[in-house]
Amino acid sequence: MSFMKHIAKHSDRKACILFREVPNEEHMCLVIYPDVLPAPWEDAIMKVLESDVGQQAEQFADALHRSYLPDGRVILDTLHREKMIKKIRTADVIVTPRPDSSIRLDELNNILREMKTGEAAIKRMAQNDAARGMVDPQTKRSAEAAYKAGRQAPTTPLVAADGALSDRALAENMLTQALRMEAEAKTMIDEAARMKKDAERMDPTVSKKKTNAHTGEAKPKRSRASTKAVVSDAAQ
Question: Which residues contact 135 (CB under 8 A, 6 or more apart)?
């Protein structure tokens, strides 16, 4: 089963989110209910939703504004004129960003807003980039401490009454993924170092040949000791 952007649930109804937030009313969003639309309209809208244009659009309304119904009318304009667009509370909408988790739309909007304005999420990403994909030690220690404290004395449920994952559950998922990525990166670095040593042992000139192949220039011969120094510098 595939999981797509812009699809959500409002109560027990399937909804398509046109705008995640209403201007000057961040606690409200605009949606449509596909199951109440005429069949040709629903088919046309779902086709746009599943397309690259629909999935890449930040707001689904942008994609619908450039798409047409079978009768040639603009989809977004027609939905508006026929009063098919509904304004509801973001806190009442549940989205599923991953197969194993769900989150309220108001919480998702807050996360996306932080990323867009360059606050906590962007800072964490920059720290990870600076560490070449490794988790920042201080961040990891703090997350591990919070994780252990949560395991020993849980104070909040993993799943809220509305089916959304709690902050603690999301934090545990993030920590698990971060530790796994760190372990995979370390394994790849160790394997790369081993392969370099094996290549040098098999043919000390292989590093020089590889360099010449990339640059297309003839390089002067180096001694074995010099070749080792180049490999060592490249590994650092």
Answer: 128, 178, 179, 181, 182
> Which tokens is 194 given?
């081993």
Measure the CA–CA gap between 124 and 139, rounded to whole angstroms.
8
Give me the pLDDT at residue 140, please: 59
Q: Which amino acid is at 144?
A: E
- Average pLDDT score over residue span 185-211: 72
Dist CA 100 CA 176 (whole Å):
14
Distances (CA, A) of 33 to 12, 30, 86, 183, 208: 11, 10, 9, 44, 64
- Kindly tell me if the per-residue pLDDT of 28 is higher than 50: yes
- pLDDT per residue over 147-163, tens digit each? 555 544 444 444 444 44
CA distance 31 to 105: 12
